[in-house]
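Hi V.,

You were right to ask for the full record rather than a summary. Here it is.
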Amino acid sequence: MPPTQQEIARKLGLSLKTVQRAFNQPETVSPIVRDRVYEFAARINYSPNRGARALQGSRRHRVALFSRSTPSFFWNDVAIGARIAARQLSQLGLEFHYRRVSSYDSCIRALRTVVRDGVDCIGLVNHTGMQMERILEWIRRRDLPFAAFNIDFEGVERLCYLGIDYERQGMLAGEVIAKLLPDGGALGILTSPETPGSFLPGADIQNRRHRGLQAALEEFPSIRREEIPIRTKGVEADPDKVLRAIQSIAGRNRIVICIPSIPSYLLRYLHDTPPDKRPGLIGFDLSPQTTSLLEHGLITAEIYQNPSLQGYGIVKLLDTFLETGRKPSRDRYLITPQVIFSSNVDQRNVFDIIAEISEPSHAWTGALAE
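Predicted structure:
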């Protein structure tokens, strides 16, 4: 049988109530007695039951996540996963808050609110153009531990990162293209070159996807590539010019990959183009609209990044950190992207994976990869 608090009390000649307070309300027990209890508990490999401590009124852990407000479909999925984790942990002492912010000012206002109400640690996304240097300095001055999710903060002291490896996403797209064009063909790469507006390079999503795609395609010289910018330095390209460039891609075997979000005019073009003249299309954002077009065959594939698993995972990581007091064992937890076709679009929901996850430290190996 596992050791119990009754056993600790009996061996140390203490009352059961004193031992319970040592674990649940340590500030009410003298340091000498508390140390005796902890040392003996470590010697017999005793770990207090978290559910029992929560029922006895131990202090609750308070976690807050901060994300962008757009695209709403993506952050809606992140919120779903985060709230599933929060519901699972609410009876074990977790209090969860989620704030979507769109600017430096709105982020600081939200941070002030949660700090005023009491928060133990936060999850934060690196946003290009949101003065992240100042936000991180605000957090640092308050000695508030944080973890990064979705987009990393590289070279910054944080607990860990959980999210997608965007270069791996691009490489996976390249592998899909190679399988779709086994005898070679033409590829139009719709790009939106970024110049990160933050000193933190982790926000460089589109360029990273592009690097991964190009690296994967180096092994397939029979696939001809043509770059088609749809946005340059924040300025949208003329839609007619983009569509003419797509139409001019030579050959019967043609695929277009859109590294940023697929523009609406391209979706209209595909809808109006006969199937025998329509190029294949691969994207990276699985919105309700692109899901419908995927199901109807207008989009060939989407490289899906499991936003609900991101939300679920970051809440579990932060809760485990607060429960154990130990920094996560990995610096980065990377979610493996999925390829979604019309044939498996109903499998994009990761709740079957989520249901099997109990603790981030040992049960994520099937869904997460280093």
